[in-house]
Amino acid sequence: MARSVKKGPFIDSHLREKVDALNARNEKKVVKTWSRRSTILPDMVGHTIAVHNGRKFIPVYVTEQMVGHKLGEFAPTRTFKGHAVKAALEKAAAAAGLPTAPAGGAAPAAGGTGGAAPASPAAPKA
């Protein structure tokens, strides 16, 4: 559920103090924070905030389009390494010498060659 307009956007007080101090001194330093739940305010635009993702700090350069979003949205916590099934199919196809599917396309149907007859290895030479 959204936060009420009456309360205003949430930002942790320690992060707000750090950003206000940088704005007062007109400095552009990286600010480390664990506060993924804090909302990005217009005061933060132009600063780099290092957001913790559970393992390391991800530097996030704040732009105007980010205002209103949460800091955690820009520091993913999980690393996607692909689908294991698709990788296994491509590995098996490579071992069998079959062509693999294009990077953006779907994998070929199991047992089929996509409608095209394979070239005969014993074709006569001209």
Structural summary, described in words:
The radius of gyration is 26 Å and the shape is elongated. Strands 1-2-3 form a 3-stranded mixed sheet, with helices on one face. The chain starts with 12 loop residues before the first helix and ends in a 30-residue tail after the last helix. It has 126 residues and is an alpha+beta fold. The chain has helices at 13-25, 84-96; strands at residues 31-33, 48-52, 57-61. The protein is built from 2 helices and 3 strands. Strand 2 (48-52) and strand 3 form a beta hairpin.
Secondary structure blueprint with pairings:
Elements: H1 13-25, E1 31-33, E2 48-52, E3 57-61, H2 84-96
Parallel strand pairs: 1-2
Antiparallel strand pairs: 2-3
Based on the model shown, name its key terms:
alpha+beta
Number of strands: 3
Cα(first) to Cα(last) distance is 73 Å
Element order: H for helix, E for strand: HEEEH
Q: Tell me the major beta sheet.
A: 3 strands, mixed
Number of helices: 2
Strand order, sheet with most strands:
1-2-3
Regions with little confidence, pLDDT below 50 for 5+ residues: none
Output the radius of gyration. Answer: 26 Å
- Indicate the mean pLDDT: 85
Q: Into which percentage range does the β-strand content fall?
A: 5-15%
Question: Roughly what percent helix?
Answer: 10-25%
Which secondary-structure class do the elements indicate? alpha+beta
